[in-house]
Amino acid sequence: MAMLSDGFDAIVIGAGHNGMALAAYLAKSGLSVAVLERRTEEGGGLCTEEVTEPNFLHNLHSNYHSLVGICPVYDDLALHDNGVEYVHPAVQMGSIFSDGSALTIHTDMEKTAASFARFSRKDADTWLRLFAEVSGYLDLMVRTLMYAPPITLRDITRALASWGVEDKSEFLTARLRSMSVADFLDRHFENDRIKAMLAFHAAICAYQPHVPGLAVTYPVLLGKITNWQLCKGGSHRLAHALMRVIVKAGGRVFPQVPVEKIVVEGGRAVGVMTPDGFVRARRLVASSLDVNQTFQSLLEPGAVPARTLEEVAGVQYQDASLFNVHLAMNGLPRYRAAAFDPDIDRAWILNLGFESLADFEDEFASVRAGRLPAVPRLNAAVNSLYDPTDAPPGMATGLLRVFAPFALADGGAEAWSREARAYGERAVERWLGAMVDGGAGLVRRWITETPLEISQKMINYRYGDWMVGRIHPKSLLENRPTQELAQYRTPIPGLYLCGASQHPHGYITFAPGYNALTVIAEDLGLEKWWAQV
Amino acid sequence: MSAIYSDAWYDDMKALINGSPEFRKQAPRQRVVMTLEVLGDGASPYVPQGQDVHFLVVLEEGAVQEYRPLPERHDGKGLGFRFTAPATVWESIAAGGVDPITAGLRGQIKIRGDMRFLMQNADAVKILVDLYGKQISTEWPKGKPPYG
Question: Do A139 and B110 touch (CB under 8 A)?
Fold first, then answer.
C-alpha cells in the first residue's frame, strides 16, 4: 500500500465529494492518487453525526441531493453498487400558510397541479406547460450548463438566438438574462402563494429570488424540482461510497493530513507540504479547497501572479448563510394544515413563513442588515418520514434552517454565541405552532448550529457560505471564481481547481470535480472511459 | 430525388451540404465525427420496430467528408456526437414536418456529446438542420410522414 512518502501521480487536497470524485476517476484511469484531508472524516459537507442523542442521525450540511439519476458520476463510479441508496420522497416539498392552507409539490406532477389548482387553475395549467417544456431540455441544459467546463453566457444566448429558441419556447427568452427569479414568476404566475412556493425552491438552492439575471438558470432548477432525494442512512453514506471506489481502484484517502503548502518548483506544482513532510505529486495537484485558501494560504505569494492574487481577493461570497436547528423527536409531526391538504404531513421539505415574493425580499434585506427577525421563516425537513433508519424505532429527526447573516449587526459573528439559543427557541416554537396540539411532547432535544460554527467546521464555507461563492450572474459560468481560473486550470502548471469555488457552484453536484477531470484528462491525454458518446 | 435511407439519398445529402456556401463559411474546420441513430418505433414503414438505422457524418475543413450508412451502432470510439431519435421523428424532420430544434428542445432527440461545441458553432448547426429538414428532396416509396 502506498505511503505518503512514496509520492503519487496525483494529489487531491480535501476529501469533499468533488475532490473524492475526481480522485476516484483518476485512480480508475490508472493513476496513483492520494486524497489528503484535514478532518478526521472524509466527506466535507456530506457530514452525518449524532449531535442530539445517540442513534439520531443528523445531516449537518448536505441534506438534499437533487442530481441523482442526472449527474453522470453516480453511474460512472457505480456509487449505487458501493453502498449508496436513495429514497425519492413522493411529496417533495410543501408550504403551510398562515390561514391554515397548504401547497404540496409531488413527484407526480398531476398531483402538484391539483394542489396548485386549489389556489389558481390558471397557474396549475401554466405549471404543467412549464414543467413539460423544461423536462424536454433539462438533460441538454444540465449537460451543457453543469457537466462541462463553462462557456460564456454570450455564447449560450447567441446560440439560442441563432436557433430561434425564443419562437419555439413559451418560457425561454433572451430577457431571462436580465430577469430575477421573482420577475420570472411574476411574469408567468398570478397567485402569490404559488409564486412563494416556487421561489422557496429557488431560495433553498441559494438562488435568491430577487437577484437580477438569475432567471437565466431557473429552468434548470425547475427541471429538478421533482428530483430531491434523500441518502438513506445519512448523507455521509455517499462519502463512504466514494472512498470505497477510490480504495478499490488503488487510491488512498488520508484523514488528518492537512496540507500546509502547495510546493512549486520551477514554476510548476510538484507536491504538497504536510506536518509529516513533503509529498511529491508527479503529475498534478488538485485543490478542492475554496479559491481563497488555495491561493492566499497554500501558495507562497511569489508563486502566484499578482493579478491572479488580486482577482482572488475580490471573489465574493453569499450574503446569506444558514442557522440550523437539529432536533431529536418522539415521532413525526402532524400539521393543522393537513385538514386542508393531508399530503402536507408527508412533505419532506417544508416552507413555513414565506407567503409571497415580498417575504423573500424582506427576509434577505434583514439578513443583509445583520438582523434576526422576531419570527423566523423556516425551511424544515423531516428525513425520518422517508428514511426511518435515521432514528430509533418510532422516533424521528428534524432539521430547521433559517437564512441568516454571518455577522450580526450587534456584535458581529461572535455574537451568535449569545443569540443562538434564543433564536433556536423561536424557530422551534414557530414550527411547533403549525402542528396539531402545538406539537406537544414531540421534541426530545435540539441543538443549534450557527453560521459561525458552520464556517469553523467546514472551512471551505467562508462566511458560512455553503455555495462557496455567491450565486450571482457576475460569479457564475465563465466568471466563477474569476475569468482566469474558470476553466479549472491555474497559472501554475500542474495545479488544478476542483472545488465548489468553481463552476457551477456548491451543493452535491459533483460538477466541479467532474469538469476538472475533463480538463485534466485533456492535459494528460487520459482516455475518457467515462465520457463515451 | 432519392428514396429515404438509400445510398443515393446519403450522397444527395452530402452534396447538398457541401454545396452550401453558407455552411462552408460557418462550419468548424476541425474534424467532427457524428452518428445519427434512427430507432424503429412501430410507426415508420422504413425502420421496423426493434431495428435501427445508423449513419455516420464526418465534417472536416468546413465540408462533409463522409455521409454514409453504418452496418451497426457506432461503438463510440472517436465519436464527437450521437443523435438518437425514433424513426418517426427523423423522418418527420426530413419531410419538413417537424422542426429539428423544437424536437431537440422537447427531448425527442437525445443528444450525446459536448453541447458547448454545438453552441459555439450555433450558426453552422442551424444551417445543417435547415438543410436536412427543408431542402433535401426525398422520395417516400412507402408513404410520407405523418403516418396514420
Answer: yes
User: What are the DSSP calls for A418-440, one per residue?
Assistant: HHHHHHHHHHHHHHHHTBGGGGT
Identify whether residues A190 and A114 lie together within a single domain. Answer: yes
CA B104: distance to chain centroid?
12
Residue A504 lies in a domain: yes
> What size, in residues, is chain B?
148
A186 plus A216 within the same structural domain: yes
One domain, residues A219 and A275: no
Picking from A220, A503, A533 by the largest number of B CB atoms within 10 A of its own CB, the best residue to mutate is A533
Q: Write out A69-81 in H/E/C secondary structure.
A: CCCHHHHHCCHHH
Q: Say if residues B114 and A178 touch (Cβ distance below 8 Å).
A: no
Task: Reply yes or no on whether the pLDDT at A532 is more than 80.
Answer: no
B105 contacts A136? CB cut-off 8 A: yes
Superfamily of domain B2-137: SCP2 sterol-binding domain (3.30.1050.10)
Q: Is the ipTM of this complex over 0.90?
A: yes
Q: Looking at A265-269, B68-72, B134-138, which range is the least confident one?
A: B134-138
pLDDT, one tens digit per residue, over A496-526 is: 999 999 999 999 999 999 999 999 999 999 9
**Confidence band for A174, pLDDT divided at 50, 70 and 90:** confident
Which is nearest to A427 in space by CA: A323, A499, A517, A338?
A: A323
Among candidate residues A225, A243, A267, the one where a domain is terminated: A225
Locate the domains of chain B by residue range.
2-137
Q: How far apart are CA A339 and CA A352, in angstroms?
A: 16
| Same domain membership, residue A261 and residue A331 | no
- A129: Cα separation from own chain's centroid: 27
Mean pLDDT over each residue of chain A, to the nearest integer: 97
- A325 plus A452 within the same structural domain: yes
